[in-house]
């Protein structure tokens, strides 16, 4: 990187503009330095950088510029090389902060137990009341089914498979399947 690319003629003008930034609109000197700062941000986030997935160069540019304006009073150098080193340090610090934050979050996610090992949420009283209402409604609707359809469905709800139901009722497995299908369809229509 060359020191002559898009920079103000006078470093003091840039520092003065940055110090005055809080009170007045940005000076021309600061605006002319932005392309150089953008180039530096891209330098810190090459396409091969893993941190690039966490923050892009424009975000790094904005965060770096804000940090630069806030900390310009800490700059004690007198040359462009010293100033550019100061800016690089700020950008490197921002990049490192994002990397560390990501590592901490990754560790937090690793220490979180899998969802299926978490205790189930306890039902609320309203959930229990709604479930009770649904059970009562289902009981009433079961009573509206014809006896053959009701018998097949109740045995199925008791955990029997089609073969066991057929053996118990003395009908074919195909008849069990048809009755179950009709019973469920009827309940869905009436629900």
Protein architecture, described:
- The protein has 191 residues and is mostly helical.
- 68% of the residues lie in helices and 0% in strands.
- It contains 8 helices and no strands.
- The chain has helices at 11-19, 28-44, 57-71, 80-111, 125-143, 147-157, 162-169, 173-190.
- Helix 2 (28-44) packs across helix 4 (80-111).
- It is rod-shaped and about 100 Å long.
Strand count: 0
Uncertain runs with pLDDT below 50, 5 residues or more? Answer: 1-6
Distance between the termini: 74 Å
Question: Could you tell me the mean pLDDT?
Answer: 79
Largest sheet: none
- Percent helix, as a range, is 55-70%
- Beta-sheet strand percentage? under 5%
Structural class: mainly alpha
Tally the helices: what do you get? 8
Q: What coarse outline follows from CA principal-axis ratios?
A: rod-shaped
Rg estimate, integer Å: 36 Å
Helix-strand pattern: HHHHHHHH
